[in-house]
Amino acid sequence: MAKKMVLAAMLVAAAVILAAGVSSAADVEGAGSEFLVADFNTGEKPNNIGGDFGAWSKDPTDFSQGCSEAFDSVNRRGATGFAMKLDYSVDSKNPAYNGFWMFLQNFDASKYDNLSIWVKGDGKIGYTTVFKVELKNASKQVGRYYVTNITDTWQDIVIPLKDFKGITDFSNLAELVIVFEDRIASNKKGVVYIDDVRFTKNK
Ligand SMILES: [Ca+2]
User: How many A from CA of 38 to the centre of ligand 1?
Assistant: First the structure.
């Protein structure tokens, strides 16, 4: 009987130590410090939170401008899965802008500090070093931020939510939009890859 009780006490102690170990390891890694919206790794829609996405164009009848999206397993972030390839052209005589949209399913990002996206341009085809990112909320606020200094290697672009101009409420996010614009694109045609769209917290 005494032996059984000792054994039981040891098992409980071991469980407590294990649980403590797990929780402290999670704290070190910052559990909940980021929230994954889209890694594109299934190779199909929707994104990781059930939101649809796709390319859009200002004027689909003007064939000299437009954007198309494709899952890309060659240019991807990480060892498996896909990235999102955005093949755009704003090389038109007419006003031109287009890009990529993604629903955020009313995600509450108010506890997060940044929108983070892995981005790179295609070194062979060419790419713009600058594009606009918009965040829209359920109250129809539209926040705008210009990403700059894109290169042909992967970079984790970290955009502080407070730097989005025009939006103040991040508790009910409806949509993320990427915009390629004729007046600011450093290359009028090209390919940009994006991967691992997340909301992140500062360390
Ligand atoms: Ca991916």
Answer: 8
Q: How far is the CA of 193 from the centre of ligand 1 (A)?
A: 10
Express each pLDDT in 29-72 by its tens digit. Answer: 455 799 999 999 999 999 999 999 999 999 999 999 999 999 99
Measured in angstroms, how far is the CA atom of residue 70 from the centroid of ligand 1? 12
How remote is the CA of residue 175 from the centroid of ligand 1, in Å?
19
Model confidence pLDDT, tens digit, residues 97-148? 999 999 999 999 999 999 999 999 999 999 999 999 999 999 999 999 999 9
What is the pTM (predicted TM-score) of this model? 0.84
Q: Give 33-200's CATH code, choosing from 2.60.120.280, 3.40.30.10, 2.60.120.430, 3.30.230.70.
A: 2.60.120.430
Distances (CA, A) of 186 to 91, 121, 160: 11, 12, 24
Which candidate, 198, 203, 176, 183, places its Cα nearest to that of 39?
198
> Mean pLDDT of all residues in the chain?
91
CA of 42 to the centre of ligand 1 (A): 8
110 alpha carbon – ligand 1 mean position (Å)? 25
CA 80 to ligand 1 centroid distance, Å: 7
Nearest to 85 by CA among 97, 68, 98: 68
